[in-house]
Write a structure and sequence with these properties.
globular, 6 strands, alpha/beta, six-stranded parallel beta sheet, 230 residues
């Protein structure tokens, strides 16, 4: 178990951890196809999410050259459109940017602000540089620095993405705390020597019995309380 005094820099995953990705994509799908019922929206959301997951896995396995998240989202939007019979180019183009208009979880903005008074705070996201800029602005997320995995042309949990955060922070990896709602992300950070904190979210990837993360929290208020305790 890490002590709060051991932490110099707090690093946050963004998608799913600080913004509600599924809700934002549902909103984009409903906007593009307002006649769709809830079941159809869920089916189309699954088409989108499965495409993104598959393509990132293909890139990780060197079955595909790296492309950023905006390119994969454009592909996902076209797949959704084909599935739904949507043909209007402007509507499809708008749908492709739905991942840049994701709502924050209720505790995200205040939690970041509170932690930023005590620590340097970094974003470390699989979102491309442009997408990360725009989704941070849309959700009102304020960072000391936002790092996109696009810089190293890889996707988490590739070790070079976590190394980007470590090199940016300029301190030993055990002085960085990686915060995420995805156990797979925290395992990647842990393998790179970083401290880890799991934050529970409705759509996250919960820890397994074998996981030994430094902290587990129900929300960012609990996280901030633990890290700012004197």
């Amino acid at each position: 178990m890490a002590e709060n005094r051991d932490i110099e820099v707090v690093v946050f995953d963004v998608l799913g951890t600080l913004v509600d990705e599924s809700s934002g994509l549902r909103t984009g799908i409903r906007e593009a196809m307002p006649a769709s019922d809830d079941a159809s929206v869920e089916e189309l959301l699954t088409v989108w999410q499965e495409h993104v997951e598959l393509e990132q896995q293909r890139i990780a396995q060197d079955d595909r050259a790296y492309v950023n998240s905006e390119a994969i989202d454009e592909e996902a939007a076209r797949r959704v459109a084909d599935h739904a019979g949507l043909a209007d180019p402007a509507t499809i183009a708008r749908l492709a940017t739905a991942g840049q208009r994701l709502p924050p979880w209720g505790d995200s903005v205040a939690g970041l602000e509170r932690l930023a008074r005590r620590f340097p705070v970094l974003a470390l996201s699989n979102a491309g540089r442009t997408a990360l800029l725009r989704l941070s602005a849309h959700a009102g997320l304020r960072w000391h620095q936002a790092l996109s995995a696009e810089v190293v042309r890889a996707y988490k949990p590739a070790p070079e993405v976590y190394q980007l955060a470590i090199e940016t922070a300029g301190c030993p990896p055990e002085r960085l705390l990686m915060v995420a709602a995805h156990a797979w992300d925290l395992r990647g950070a842990q393998a790179s020597g970083m401290r880890t904190a799991y934050v529970r979210r409705p759509a996250g990837d919960p820890p397994r019995r074998a996981d030994a993360f430094d902290w587990q929290f129900n929300d960012l208020d609990e996280l901030a309380n633990a890290l700012t305790a004197s």
